[in-house]
Amino acid sequence: MNDALLYLLVGAMIPCLAALVANRLGWIQISLPDGPETPRVARASTARLTCAIVAEERLDAALLFKSPVRLFATIANDSAVAARALRGQWKVITPDNPRNRPMPIRREVLGPGDEFLDSCLVNESEDWETNGIRFDAEIEFDYLTSGSEEPYRERVRYRYDQVSQKMVRLAAR
Question: CA angle, corner 139, sides to 47 and 148, nearest 5?
Answer without folding.
Answer: 25
